[in-house]
Amino acid sequence: MEGMADLLYLESGIERHYGFGDLTLGLQYADEDYSEGKAQVWGLRGEVGLPWGLSLSTAYNKTLSTHDMSADNFFGGGPYFSSSQNLTIAEAGPDGQALMATVSLDGAAGITGSYLEVAVLHIEGDGGIKADEVDTVVGYEAGEDLTFDLIYSDIKDRKESSNSFKNLRFFANYQF
């Protein structure tokens, strides 16, 4: 049908527990077939979680496209391993790639339920698209159903500096 899209999304992962902590590995694949072109997204993710609350992770996504199609965030916030607070592989454009590194610390303020996370994302794609994003999240879990997050994002467009911006957001999330 005209204007329709065929979407396939697959994700798998494995988690192993070792003496030093936990190791998690993930693979993902998306096939986005639109009437005007096609995009395939491949992804890899690895994370090491240490017993004292420190986690280190890295993620990579690559888009392969036909007819200059870029990836789409078809599930709403970007389902891809390398998605940050603002940028995703979709903003990298056709044949784009994204690399992300994250450091997380639970109990960061010495307060049970608090956490600190710093994530760095670099995207680039055909046409000279290059951008970086650094996200800092300070959060608190007030219970099983309530969390608070203060998120600061610094986005730098390496091609067009006037598109660079910063934002600060506060979220209170309640799960029903």
Task: Kindly describe this structure.
The chain is mostly beta strands. The chain has a single domain, classed as Porin (Beta Barrel). 0% of the residues lie in helices and 63% in strands. It contains no helices and 9 strands. The chain has strands spanning 5-18, 21-34, 37-49, 54-66, 97-106, 114-125, 129-141, 146-157, 165-174. The chain has a 9-stranded antiparallel β-sheet, with no helix packed on it. The mean pLDDT is 91.
Strand order of the largest sheet: 1-2-3-4-5-6-7-8-9
Write the element-wise H/E pattern from the N-terminal end onward: EEEEEEEEE
CATH superfamily (homologous) name: Porin
Query: Would you tell me the structural class of the helices and strands?
Result: mainly beta
* Name of the CATH class: Mainly Beta
Q: What is the CATH topology assignment? A: Porin
Distance between the termini: 38 Å
Number of separate strands? 9
The poorly predicted ranges are none
| Tally of DSSP helical segments | 0
Q: What's the alpha carbon Rg, rounded to whole Å?
A: 18 Å
Content of β-strand: over 45%
- CATH architectural group: Beta Barrel
Helix content range:
under 10%
Largest sheet: 9 strands, antiparallel
Shape: globular
On the 0-100 scale, what is the average pLDDT?
Answer: 91
The number of distinct structural domains comes to 1
